[in-house]
Design goal:
The complex is a heterodimer of chains A (384) and B (292). With 384 residues, chain A is α/β, with parallel strands linked by helices. Chain A is built from twelve helices and 15 strands. Chain A has helices spanning 2-30, 55-74, 91-104, 116-129, 158-173, 187-202, 221-229, 241-253, 269-275, 295-306, 313-331, 338-346; strands spanning 41-48, 79-86, 109-111, 133-135, 151-153, 177-183, 206-213, 234-238, 260-262, 283-286, 351-353, 356-360, 366-367, 371-376, 379-382. Chain B has a domain at 2-117 and 131-217. Chain B has helices at residues 2-29, 36-52, 58-81, 90-113, 139-161, 163-173, 175-180, 185-211, 218-233, 238-259, 264-278, and strands at 129-132, 135-138. Classes of the chains: A alpha/beta (384), B mainly alpha (292). The interface between A and B is medium-sized, with 29 and 33 residues.
Chain lengths: 384, 292
């Protein structure tokens, strides 16, 4: 008897939940048109990974966006109101956040999401609803901006950064053989691997062995032992920061003293903090030259210093995203509709940003000069 | 080769320690305690908090976290299992209520420690590398294998020789008969949970130290592996769990190194599948169903 009662109770709960879902989604069905900003400003949604596997990037992206908004709103430009939501580093949560931005908040444009993996699932919703998305950290070469004409990005892809970084590393370190380790369950780390493989072949570096891991893995001893046993000149790793720090630490424990070259996932102060002394000497390609003396970069550094934040590539790209959206609105004559912003983005050219002179490629990808950095004394230092 | 064997033994020692506690409760109650992985996770977090926030030495934090794990086990037994005991469907309802407790424990950890990966502060354990022939192992890895083996040996002795061990074994055989000869069945079961969860907690702390990344969902992967280990070893058999744990650790390491990480679980479970076809009761399973 009591079992039946419990069942009916849980059914009731489920029903109630379903009803609530429906009521929040209800206004969505009527939407679909262009957003018109109220009060003479633009509402921008930012989907960032504040929790989950990519949380170490999300925190700095938030700082970058906040600094960018302060900059824009203080400069007499169009007023921006940015709503920041957590995509939890997952596709599912990313989709939920996008739906909220598109249908409930009726934003003019969306910044993010943090991971290419999430973007590959969430961006199609924005494309369908004709809401412009400016990706500020997606680096998978394919599957992002080719979703459609509403998807743009200010982050250089792995294909734009890694070949140059490996070439520079080879000039410095003179290696001929490599062992490769990559995450094969993530769009970004897999894409990074594809680029690395091609770049290594172009440099005539022989890949002695390739190993894989999955994001939830904690133990990389088996893979590292197999790779180190082949005695390569360098280890090349494509991983997100959380995995990357454990991989580097375990590689050093397994006795690896040679150089380690990383993909874009290593570009986070969290990587250095968690890997500790093991991170020393790790080399990574980067989109942002922290030493650049350009006024735009100095202004950014100052803003971050004021906020007490140690800036990285991700905060620079996030900050740049806000500057680009403001420029797009300016190019559109101050109009903040969704179509106006798309038209404005197309006109952004040689814009001064912390990343350098910024333009979009015809494929709506970012175009500017990359650099290479290396961990020295617990800090990323640009390799000249 | 030698290095990979060492990696396998190292991983296997943690699996075995986890599974020994898992199988102990199964042997006594015929119930799968699906909250075992949550105790594993909570103990790891408790040790982390004691080291990172209370600045205690690891050698104080480790036993404290193990005892805390045991205490959580007693709570678990009181809340999730004892109220259901004696019901006709207690096997399945116990399984479900332990699943609920696992969810509660994970939610608590999420509240307190957040969803991100937490790490022991650097220097928690001296960073020393030891050479064994051509292979290397860190001092930490050797200690982990050592601690696991000692704990498992202590449990085996306890079960075989002590008064408590005899009581637990009697209850496993037949709770009714045990009660007739004057054994406090409730107490014996509570003690089995204490031992089981203390060992699970020890495995959690060692796992956290070994791979230095703890999150509220850290136990889930190990739980599935633990389940495979106790089925492979023969449900309820402690020596079976030990041997199967080491076997699975070795299988996993060689699978990853030679077939790729995507096959990590596929091969482990394929082995399980074929062992069960050949020996339905597992490697060390008891001969026949007991007569109640």
């Amino acid at each position: 008897m009591s079992l039946a009662r419990r069942w009916s109770f849980s059914l009731l709960l489920l029903l109630a939940a379903a009803c609530r879902d429906q009521s929040t989604e209800a206004p969505a069905s009527g939407a679909g048109g262009t957003a018109t900003a109220s009060g003479g400003g633009a509402t921008i949604g930012a989907a960032l990974s504040l929790t989950g596997a990519a949380a170490s990037y999300g925190a700095l992206q938030r700082a970058g966006i906040q600094a960018g908004v302060e900059q824009v709103n203080g400069g007499g430009g169009p007023k921006l109101n940015v709503l920041i939501e957590d995509d939890a580093s997952t596709k599912e949560q990313g989709i939920t956040v996008f739906q909220k931005f598109i249908n409930r908040d009726r934003v003019s444009a969306i910044l993010g999401p943090t991971l290419s993996n999430t973007a590959s699932a969430a961006d199609p919703l924005a494309q369908q609803a004709k809401v412009p998305v400016l990706a500020i950290s997606n680096t998978a070469p394919t599957g992002i901006t080719d979703i459609g004409n509403y998807i743009w990005r200010d982050s250089l892809t792995e294909a734009q950064v890694i070949p140059g970084a490996l070439k520079k590393a080879q000039e410095k370190l003179d290696f001929k053989t490599a062992g490769v380790l990559y995450g094969n369950d993530d769009v970004f780390t897999k894409a990074g691997y594809d680029v690395m493989q091609k770049a290594l072949a172009d440099l005539a570096v022989k890949v002695l062995g390739t190993q894989t891991f999955a994001k939830p893995d904690r133990d990389y001893n088996a893979q590292l032992t197999a790779l180190i046993g082949l005695k390569p000149d360098v280890l090349v790793v494509s991983a997100l920061a959380d995995n990357a720090s454990s991989i580097v630490a375990q590689a050093r424990q397994r006795g690896w003293t040679g150089p380690i070259l990383g993909g874009n996932g290593f570009n986070s102060p969290a990587f250095i903090k968690n890997a500790g002394a093991a991170a020393e000497g790790v080399m990574v390609g980067t989109s942002w030259n922290s030493l650049s003396q350009d006024p735009a970069n100095q202004k950014f550094l100052e803003a971050m210093k004021k906020g007490g934040v140690n800036p990285d590539q991700f905060s620079a790209q996030a900050y740049t995203g806000v500057i680009i959206l403001a420029e797009a609105i300016k190019q559109a004559g101050g109009k903040t509709g969704r179509e106006d912003i798309v038209a404005g983005l197309a006109k952004v050219k040689d814009l001064d940003t912390p990343l350098g002179k910024f333009s979009f490629t015809p494929g709506r990808d970012a175009q500017h000069e990359p650099s290479v950095q290396q961990v020295k004394d617990g800090k990323f230092q640009i390799v000249q | 080769m030698g290095q990979q064997v060492l990696n396998g033994i190292f991983l296997g020692s943690i699996y075995a320690l986890f599974a020994v506690g898992y199988t102990l409760v199964f042997g006594v109650l015929d119930i799968l305690n699906l909250a075992h992985q949550a105790v594993f996770m909570l103990a790891a977090f408790i040790a982390l908090a004691l080291v990172a926030d209370a600045h205690l030495s690891l050698w104080v934090a480790l036993p404290a976290a193990v005892l805390a794990g045991g205490a959580i086990g007693i709570v678990l037994e009181r809340v999730a299992f004892r109220p259901l005991r004696g019901r006709a469907d207690s096997n399945i309802s116990g399984l479900i209520s332990s699943l609920a407790m696992a969810t509660v424990f994970e939610a608590i950890a999420l509240q307190i420690f957040g969803p991100d990966i937490s790490r022991f502060p650097p220097g928690t354990f001296p960073d020393r590398v030891v050479r064994i022939g051509a292979a290397t192992a860190s001092l930490l890895q050797l200690c982990i294998v050592g601690i696991s083996v000692v704990l498992m040996a202590v449990l085996t002795l306890l079960l075989a020789r002590s008064r408590l061990g005899r009581q637990i074994r009697a209850v496993a055989e037949s709770p009714r008969a045990a009660r007739i000869v004057g054994i406090d069945v409730d107490r014996a079961i509570a003690m089995a949970f204490f031992l089981s969860s203390a060992l699970g907690g020890a495995a959690g702390v060692l796992f956290g130290l070994a791979f230095n990344s703890i999150s509220p969902d850290v136990g889930r992967g190990v739980e599935l592996k633990g389940l495979a280990v106790i089925i492979l070893g023969g449900m309820g058999s402690v020596p079976g769990a030990v041997i199967a744990g080491f076997a699975l650790g070795l299988i996993e390491v060689f699978t990853v190194a030679h077939l790729g990480s995507s096959f990590r679980d596929a091969v482990s479970f394929a082995v399980l599948f074929f062992v069960l076809i050949a020996r339905p009761r597992g490697l060390f399973g008891r001969a026949a169903a007991r007569e109640a």
